Amino acid sequence: QVQLVESGGGLVQAGGSLRLSCAASGRIFTISSMAWYRQVQGKQRELVAGFIRGEATKYADSVKGRFTVTRDNFKSTMYLQMNSLKPEDTAVYYCRYWNSEFAELNYWGQGTQVTVSL
After folding, report:
1. Which residue has the higher pLDDT, 99 or 12?
2. Which residue in 91, 117, 106 sits closest to 35, CA to CA?
């Protein structure tokens, strides 16, 4: 079992910054994938940024140059530094941990709300 707990969301003005954290506990393997997703009500959840198969980082085109994903393997924590925030970044942000080779290894956090005002 893996537990994921996100924190760091909140309300910020456009142009501001936030840092999200995702603390993982349980059986964590760095070779698995871990990433941030976001979802706006009524729309599909989309990948924002993360580590695919433990190494390669991936960013959505809409956040490149503004968001940076990092991780601290010792603390089993992943971070998302979000700069130059825009109103369209408003969403619930979720942390996901998964391994494509094992379908049962697919965990989500509870989500944290990010709201960017004009």
Report:
1. 12
2. 106
From residue 16, alpha-carbon distances to 28, 36, 62, 117 in Å are 32, 19, 16, 10
Q: How far from the centroid of its chain's Cα atoms is residue 89's Cα? A: 13
Using CA atoms, how far apart are residues 96 and 44, in angstroms rounded to an integer? 15
Over the stretch 33-79, which tens digit does the pLDDT of each residue have?
A: 999 999 999 999 999 999 988 777 899 999 999 999 999 988 889 99
**Is residue 81 within 8 Å of 107, Cβ to Cβ?**
no
Question: Please, are residues 90 and 109 in contact by the beta-carbon 8 Å criterion?
Answer: no
C-alpha radius of gyration, the chain, whole number: 14
**∠ at Cα 64 (50, 98), nearest 5°?**
15
Side chain identity at residue 61, one-letter code: D
